[in-house]
Amino acid sequence: MLSHRLPLVLLASAAVLAASPALAQSKPSPWSVGKAVDAPDNLTLSGSMRIRYEAIDGQARPGFNEHDDLISLRTILGAEYRAGPVRLVGELHDSRVWEDDAGSPVTTSEVNTFELVQAYIAADFDSPFAKGKASVQAGRFTLNLGSRRLVAADDYRNTTNGYTGVRFDAALPAGMKGSAVWVMPHVRLPDDRASVRDSQTEWDQENDDLVIWGGVLSRPDTFGKAMLEGSYFHFEEKDAPGRPTRDRSLDSVSLRVVRDPAAGKLDYEVEVIAQTGEISAGLGPAAATLDVEAGFAHAEVGYSFSTAWKPRLSAEVDYASGDDSDASYGRFDTLFGMRRADFAPSGIYNAVGRSNIVSPGVRLEMTQSPRLDSFLAVRALWLASATDSFSTTGVRDAAGDSGRFAGYQLDGRVRYWLVPDALRLEVNGVWLAKGRFLETAPNAPDSRDTLYMSLNLSAFF
Hints:
Elements: H1 2-18, E1 43-57, E2 67-83, E3 86-98, E4 112-126, E5 133-141, E6 163-171, E7 177-185, H2 193-197, E8 210-223, E9 226-237, E10 249-259, E11 266-280, E12 289-304, E13 312-320, E14 357-369, E15 372-382, E16 405-419, E17 423-434, H3 436-440, E18 450-460
Antiparallel strand pairs: 1-2, 1-18, 2-3, 3-4, 4-5, 5-6, 6-7, 7-8, 8-9, 9-10, 10-11, 11-12, 12-13, 13-14, 14-15, 15-16, 16-17, 17-18
């Protein structure tokens, strides 16, 4: 499958290089051309282009091609103007795909053309609460908050999450830092299948039918060198004209302790999220309202060796609750959280995420040089609830007769800077060795183990 697409990938990669004259500059910043263009000192221009070829064999999700491949391109152009403490920021995203067909899993996660994802004004000033800085911003922007497991700007995915609203960050007493937000997540448009496949352009929408608000508090060196962090987010979703929803009203409370990796030291991270609220049993206006009782936990311990390649070996376990058909609803909702850092790539793989899963694993990370880094991870996969669909596959046995074991996943990545800070090659690979559940559940695809790979070439200018 790869061989007949590879010339297209190489041709598109050459187009990226030809369109990026700033690559000839010596070691520009990854997100700013600085003096590489004729711009005032208080104006910063930035951009990136990423072309990706991905292929899958033995698709684990029902309803899609058993074998598939896809070419995607994401272009980002940004500008920031500074006038003293005030900043004006704009960022245009263009995400599109080629070589898809009717059975390809292409949605607004892959396509969102010519969209002004960021357009905001921000101001920096002295914190009114403690010695240190504070800032406020308003408009359209991306967000990465806390562990990024509930609110994040996804980077592996071809499109990202955008929000419209206000954000406030400040230094607080006792060395704490705080962030608070009230935002309306963007609904990426158009979202009908025909328009998405045709890469049609339509302005993304935001309104108060879809709102998330809350904040994060953190304090460094609370337990020795470990940071203590707590967060609360309320998510509200209501029906909009032509857009019925599950009417989610969710409260997510998180407590996290993390010690960052350091050479010759143990590091660790523990996060627990409790999720409560209400959700409709279906999309219809007469659907019953269910109480939500769900949860997530992540625990990880690692050690970084003081050797040339800086290897870090870690053991980890993740748990996200599933729905067990009781009177309450138990499936954990990751809201707008990231996926790649904890589990596996999204794209046309997109099989393992933060719902109905119990997954221990081992990971080895290495930084072989300033230009080369890699990791390899293996994890076992079980269902938290035997009657709910496994993770993000959509495979389900409502009777629970297919057991809980979903299989093993081997996941790896290699990244290499072809031109330092300017041009990077990234290769991802996943082998999902299917267990009993993914082989025997009633709607499980009749296919062998899943193999996925992606080749990515990113230019920063």
